[in-house]
Design the sequence.
């Protein structure tokens, strides 16, 4: 199924999303290569979260097609025609994607370890021992090897977010989505989470899409930065260029405003 | 104590009979409550599913909640036989109690399920859980502990409604006490014993529910 060609890992093809009369994303075209790290920035309400949520199948799209790893996700071929995907198809393609949320969304009734073993056991059918070994490895990787038995409520925000990252990784996704994963954290806790994401970038051959307000991190970490404005990609490019010499007037305005706020 | 007001020999005589009746009451309570718990959950899920069947479930719940339990008991026992469904009094009573309290429980379940944040469902989608596993492993275990007290209240309420079954001559506590009273022309002893039995069992269940509640809270540290 997964062809050897150089297809992009993610492709938005003319994707449109509306909420009632409000068009949140308008004919979006975006390709993300295998292993590429893309940062998404832009003012509030510009549709950044919506892009990730559509890719995670948490939102239906109103037009266009989303491709994942060379095959359509939102649609499928039936009798030579593209028809909207059935749940089974959606589930199969979705298994390649993991997501980390702004508010962690950990399972409060489970320990850190159980948070990381539940899906591998019930969804992938891994035996408990194997799931626990893998979860323990991941918790070690995010620096929480000693917190396996803790419940989310017994962990700091930064620790919870790191468990959430480990939980998503336990499903072995090829694509990871991060939606402002440090926005709900106290400033002194952001660093430990960003450190983990940095490590992922270097250790894993993961494709990453991250919405962030941390321009410094985007600049240093991302291969490419997309600036969203009113549901469109207004400007994109390598971080060095986009941050130091933005061409678009709106990008300039936005970056100026962000820098002033710091 | 004057034997006019209280006769111990009479008390001893009727105690075994009332104990048997107490078993009937407790059986009716427990069987009805277990069915009500299951039915309530099913109704709550149907109503939240938003399908056409959900609309019917809502209508049914409204109907049951807006009519007296006694009428429902009579309906099931006296009217259904006209449609070829004849039930013995105990079964009819159990069905009425389960339906009635199942509808009330469905409201409680619904509140509990709706209180689970949307982010929990979304995390499950992101982790590729099936809907069934999402519900069973993630949503339900979070929805239940907070509603244990409310469900427990309905257990006690159901228990205290079992005397209504005397209206269709189920040999539960009150019916038996009434019979004993009219046979012997002495109501003091049987009615007092029955009242005390209800009091003690209600208090015991309330304590049991509080214990369960604390245990559940301890398990999911919040
Ligand atoms: N469920 C919804 N119903 C209606 N409108 C919505 C819904 N979700 C998002 N929107 C609207 O869609 C637009 C884009 O929202 P989105 O969350 O993608 O913005 P964002 O770029 O992530 O903003 P922020 O930086 O504040 O997180 C906003 O105008 C928002 O009000
Ligand atoms: Mg957002």
Sequence:
């Amino acid at each position: 199924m997964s062809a050897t060609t150089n297809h992009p890992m993610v492709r938005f093809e003319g994707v449109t999303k509306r909420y009632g009369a409000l068009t949140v994303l308008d004919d979006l075209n975006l390709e993300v290569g295998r292993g590429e790290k893309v940062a998404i920035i832009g003012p509030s309400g510009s549709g950044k979260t919506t892009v990730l949520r559509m890719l995670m199948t948490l939102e239906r799209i109103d037009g266009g097609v989303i491709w994942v790893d060379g095959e359509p996700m939102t649609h499928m071929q039936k009798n030579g025609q593209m028809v909207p995907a059935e749940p089974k198809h959606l589930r199969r393609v979705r298994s390649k994607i993991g997501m980390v949320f702004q508010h962690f969304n950990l399972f409060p009734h489970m320990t850190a370890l159980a948070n990381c073993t539940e899906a591998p056991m019930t969804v992938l059918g891994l035996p408990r021992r194997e799931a626990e070994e893998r979860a323990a490895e991941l918790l070690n990787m995010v620096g929480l090897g000693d917190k396996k038995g803790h419940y989310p409520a017994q962990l700091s925000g930064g620790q919870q977010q790191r468990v959430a990252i480990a939980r998503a990784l336990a499903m072995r996704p090829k694509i990871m989505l991060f939606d402002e994963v440090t926005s709900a954290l106290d400033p002194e806790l952001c660093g430990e989470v960003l450190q983990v994401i940095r490590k992922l970038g270097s250790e894993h051959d993961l494709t990453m899409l991250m919405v962030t307000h941390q321009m410094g991190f985007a600049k240093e970490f991302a291969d490419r930065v997309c600036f969203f404005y009113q549901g469109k990609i207004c400007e994109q490019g390598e971080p060095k260029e986009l941050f130091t010499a933005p061409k678009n007037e709106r990008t300039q305005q936005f970056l100026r405003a962000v820098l002033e706020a710091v | 104590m004057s034997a006019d007001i209280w006769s111990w020999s009479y008390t001893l005589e009727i105690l075994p009979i009332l104990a048997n009746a107490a078993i009937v009451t407790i059986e009716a309570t427990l069987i009805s409550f277990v069915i009500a718990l299951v039915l309530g959950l099913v109704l709550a899920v149907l109503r939240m599913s938003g399908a056409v069947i959900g609309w019917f479930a809502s209508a049914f719940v409204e109907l049951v909640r807006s009519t007296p339990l006694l009428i429902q008991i009579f309906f099931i026992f006296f009217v259904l036989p006209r449609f070829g469904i004849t039930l013995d009094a105990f079964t009819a009573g159990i069905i009425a109690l389960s339906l009635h309290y199942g509808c009330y429980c469905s409201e409680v379940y619904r509140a509990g399920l709706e209180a689970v944040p949307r982010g929990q469902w979304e995390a499950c989608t992101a982790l590729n859980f099936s809907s069934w596993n999402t519900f069973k492993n993630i949503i339900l275990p979070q929805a239940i502990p907070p509603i244990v007290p409310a469900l427990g209240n309905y257990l006690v309420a159901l228990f205290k409604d079992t005397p209504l079954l005397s209206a269709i001559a189920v040999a539960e506590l009150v019916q038996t006490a009434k019979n004993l009273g009219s046979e012997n022309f002495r109501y003091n002893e049987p009615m007092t014993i029955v009242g005390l039995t209800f009091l003690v069992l209600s208090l015991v269940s309330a304590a049991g529910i509080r214990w369960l509640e604390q245990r559940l809270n301890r398990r999911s540290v919040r």
In short: The pocket of adenosine-5'-triphosphate (ligand 1) is lined by residues A 19, 24, 42, 44-50 (CB under 6 Å). Residues 107-172 of chain A form one domain. The interface with chain B takes residues 56-58, 91, 94-95, 97-99, 101, 103, 105-109, 118-119, 122-123, 151, 153-154, 167-168, 171 of chain A (CB under 8 Å). Chain A is about 35% helix and 25% strand.
